[in-house]
Amino acid sequence: MFIKRKLWGTEVVLARGVKLLCPWDVLSVQVHADCDEEWRIISCPKGAFVYAGAKSVPPDGDYAGMIGRLGADAALGRVYVSPGDSILIKRGTIHALTPGVTVLERRYGHFAAETLRLYDFGRGRSLRIQEANAVSSDVSRLQEQQNLYSL
User: Fold this and answer.
1) What is the DSSP string of 75-143?
2) CATH, residue 44
3) Residue 110 structural domain
4) Which 8-state DSSP code applies to residue 32?
5) pLDDT at 143 over 70
């Protein structure tokens, strides 16, 4: 086990593919091509949400541009969460954790899968917009298909 302090909060690596994420700021909007993630909500404030999916598919396929123009709240889908909920983030799904939502994250698939950062809220880290746009699926359907379940 080891602990990493990040720009957005604390990451505790528990095992291969298993992390505890404790954000005090929103994480970057990202997507994975080679793995699914399951988020088990450990703790969160009342009314908390995570970003998962887009509210619409941009005609030009530029999700980063859409988020930049509209802002995350207008461009991204919200999934409201409570402690004990689990959310499956399928590969190709745009997503981001929000402040105060502590999750146990498990990766399924390629454990070394790269994180393709699409939007970073002005923090100045490198983005991989073209690659992220290329692997982002038609995620507007996520709002209809969102699976919340208990482990």
Assistant:
1) HEEEEE--TT-EEEE-TT--EE--TT-EEEEEEEE-TTPPPEEEE-TT------HHHHHHH---GGGHH
2) 2.60.120.10
3) 2-149
4) -
5) no
Helix and strand numbers, DSSP H then E, in the chain: 4, 12
Strands, sheet with 95-96, edge to edge from the N-terminal-most edge strand: 76-80, 49-54, 95-96, 29-31, 116-119
- Phi first, then psi, for residue 75 (nearest 5°) are -95, -30
> DSSP per residue over 127-140, as a string?
--HHHHHHH---GG
DSSP label at 27?
A: P
Q: Could you identify the residue written with the tokens 């590969």?
A: 91
**Model confidence pLDDT, tens digit, residues 109-118:** 876 668 889 9
C-beta of residue 21 within 8 angstroms of C-beta of residue 4: no
Number of domains observed in the structure of the chain: 1
Query: What is the model's pTM?
Result: 0.86
Q: What is the pLDDT of residues 62-100, one digit of tens each?
A: 888 899 999 999 999 999 999 999 999 998 899 999 999
Q: Which amino acid, residue 24?
A: W
